């Protein structure tokens, strides 16, 4: 048996080696001698892609033959990262490919680093979409992801003199081996123009939209392989083109720039990802992006449905469309236009089909992040959609006004038009009305939806709001990121670990076992050594792999409270300076994350972290007991390096403000203990891992609300905490910015007088929780037991579980779990 296995592995490696050489020569056009790392990467990617394509075509064929229901996931962001190891892992090709390349004198792990990240997303929302695509394929659900093929993904971050600088991102500079351009799949997307009303003989009116401008959407397809390659789905991203790219008349008359104007205007739509993750951009171009991809996607799926099933009236039986936040919410009006204007479906039937087809996922409660568009802008850019929205609203308000307890105030709150801020269309309300199910992304968040943004809509349309707690794909975030730990876990739970993540529960039985703990800790240490090497290489900072790695990695935001973490860092720094010879426990504070370019306070927080790092790391009295590291340019690939090496996971948002979090899940899965508030999915993580194996502190969501009612002045909390007062005084007086002592005055003033995010209110309890972390860390047996129990109990947070719930409760499609054979 063992010999058979070895022989077939050798055969597999030999076949892959031949295939790679073939690709290198005939598809890349390079000789063995001339090939660069990138050439080898492309050749290897092509070999993996070939295997995927075979199954892809089979999957498409199967779906067509059976005519089963299709899921469409509409997302303006897909934060994919690299794809090579996703492809190799899920096609079960990693080891033979490694051997094949080795025989050619090439190191697979070196090739891995050559691939640029596809960073077509800002943070959690975009990464969730990428995890979902993988789980959809893993569960053999027939699904498409629809999004935008941005020429430039999220900006590249550099830190200069402690400050963030943004540079354009160039993921397509060397081509993209994973995608297939489909020039024949293109749709016209209209903007502006006017409506013609044609009176029909039967007394009805037919509306014809005559756009003043059109842009073309061209499809680019990337196959997404599920675990063990059983099913392959398509990620279809749209790129914008001008219908008439060159105005020859202008060119010939010498106006060379004017000749290209239309092209530039059209192509600007898919040029760049908007970099704000919670502050709506509010510009016309953003609305154009949203309509562009929503319309192209709907045209595409309606055409597919008509080809497969003949008539439009069966749409809701065969199609489920999930709106990833409100960014594609205009699709509700666009589907109504397609049904009513283009297919003559009566309004009432069209509305029933629309509602039965759409589901809407909300990802944030932050008021400033809820999308609204000015009515005049909508009227100018999408005049027919604006009419449709008015009609949806009129019927909706009419129905609601007949309810017994209807008041003017209630009607104003549920209206699609916000009249209080200069007439704006509420996209969240449109998505809510147009969907049969609306979900939040953690239990707490879904509960809060019902008492905050959608309070009145929930009263009028009860039962529509449900919960779908987020999850992450364990193929990427366990196996690919942490292969050593995964092997150890597989020994314990068996090799069906990635088929059924709940098998991880078996790890609980050995979590207290000394021999197991030793091996678990050894895997973790190897990851820490690797991260230490990366930090040394990139920043020239030496960190001790035996120190506690305390990690906060996420977008920089006031509500995520990186500043609370920095305040505690400074408090510890002060203590070490006061008593340098005590037996301090070495600790490394690791920060990584980007700030929206326009978010001045977030950028100042980055600078503060870097300034504190500079002072602390250079202080001889600290002697390396405390190190502070800010790793620039946080992205998916860097996350894959940091997460397996983290001991402590900082999830310290103001309670009630982080919808879910997903980094929290990846970190706990890989054995970091969480220090966190009762916010987002932390609440459910505590339930699963047990209150003894997580460090919870701070105000609850309810208490935050009550506290805010009493006022948001921080002075009282500061007066009660000498430590906090001392830290704030140090920052404000320029201890960390000697070159510009007033640099952080404004930041400190916010905390003293306008502490909306409750940093001062939570400081003491956070500080105490950190001390509890240290006490636990001193008892290594207890620490590793808790870490192993975190891994053991995180199985529920697999995105396979999340997607299975969507399939059952929202989409009504069957799932087929993966498995051998
Ligand atoms: C809007 C307009 C213009 C430009 C950008 C945006 C925009 C982009 C992303 C607004 C919000 C965006 O994302 C919100 C988000 O990422 N929410 C996060 O979703 C995760 C997945 O559900 C949760 O885990 C996080 O808690 C939540 O913050």
UniProtKB/TrEMBL annotation:
UniProt-listed Gene3D superfamilies: Glycogen Phosphorylase B (3.40.50.2000)
Keywords from the UniProt entry: Carbohydrate metabolism, Glycosyltransferase, Pyridoxal phosphate, Transferase
Signal sequence residues: none
Mitochondrion as UniProt keyword: no
Necessary cofactors: pyridoxal 5'-phosphate
Record-linked PROSITE patterns: PHOSPHORYLASE
InterPro entries linked: Glycg_phsphrylas, Glyco_trans_35, Pyridoxal_P_attach_site
Gene Ontology terms, MF aspect: 1,4-alpha-oligoglucan phosphorylase activity
Reactions it catalyzes: [(1->4)-alpha-D-glucosyl](n) + phosphate = [(1->4)-alpha-D-glucosyl](n-1) + alpha-D-glucose 1-phosphate
PANTHER family (alphabetical): GLYCOGEN PHOSPHORYLASE, GLYCOGEN PHOSPHORYLASE, LIVER FORM
Protein role: Allosteric enzyme that catalyzes the rate-limiting step in glycogen catabolism, the phosphorolytic cleavage of glycogen to produce glucose-1-phosphate, and plays a central role in maintaining cellular and organismal glucose homeostasis. Phosphorylase is an important allosteric enzyme in carbohydrate metabolism. Enzymes from different sources differ in their regulatory mechanisms and in their natural substrates. However, all known phosphorylases share catalytic and structural properties.
Protein name: Alpha-1,4 glucan phosphorylase
